[in-house]
Amino acid sequence: MKKKVMSALLAGAMLFALAACGNNSSNGGNGGNAGGGSNGGGNSGAVIELRMGNVTSSSAKDAVTEVFIPKVEEYSNGTIKITHFPDNQLGNDEQSFAMAQTGECDIAVGSTSSVATTYNDLYLYDIPYMFLNKQEVYEVGFNGEAGKAILDGFSGYGLKGLAFWENGFRNVTTNNKDIAAVTDLNGLKIRTMANEIHLEAWKAMGANPTPMAFGELFTAMQQGTVDGQENPLGIITGNKFEEIEKFCTLTEHVYTPYYVVMNLEKWNSLTAEQQDALTRAMEETTQRQYELSQKYEDEAVGVMEAAGCKVRTLTDEEKLSFKEAADKANSLEAAKKIMYKPELADQMSEELAAYRSK
Fold this sequence. Notes:
alpha/beta; 10 strands; about 20% strand
């Protein structure tokens, strides 16, 4: 089993989990034993508590509260209870991923880009302009053979891949310059994640990519430490970046999914009926999450403009100039060099080509 999470990260995650999760025994009666070894599944008749760490996006949070929590309880006949920790209460994406691996928490949601350094096949979703619209993502990126293989590959990290959710296409915001063309990025400090595919693509587009923890970003933009950042619209408005950013350009340069994973040992400790309940509930929740994501994205432009943030929509020709610049980083080949299964990149490219030729 591949486990490449650094010991320091695991140690930090363990400590965080003990503080945030471990004192939650009153919620479900299972105490701190999230690993499932002595749980006995649903055979004992006891209610099983599953602790779920979630992100800041409204679509992900609302889908869990509206659909996942009640449907899991309904379909499991009350034998499973979901305790929800939204807004990164249990730690950031990397910490949440690590805690799900160790069993400190049971279900985790986070950005695939944040954990691609651990599960390298996820770099496939970091290639600029790999997907040109959401339908390609749904039909090929998630439900094509390569996408399904990547979801199944979480098992190599002690995790059950439950679903890919929508984080969305990433767009750039700035506090000092309206980005109308790719040349407007020259020299700008753009906050990015510490993701090598992202970093090289931004350099190819002329920017000065500046990796920074997400929790530090709002203050960094306020103080002018960075000139801007790039994120999906749901993240931008969910964290009120429009209150301090003056410009947003809909570059849609990368489509970033959320991973939804569960501790594999915990999953295996459940009865077949309970696993089916979680699967059914997750399918319905995923569909609702996609719907909410689109709804909130449609509303986000108005929210930003109302706050005084100018939103620029690019023409196809203007967007092509960003793509051509990003292509200089040769991200597909760069991703293949660090993926565990580089053949998945070729397979997904072929599936996309076939889909577009229909």
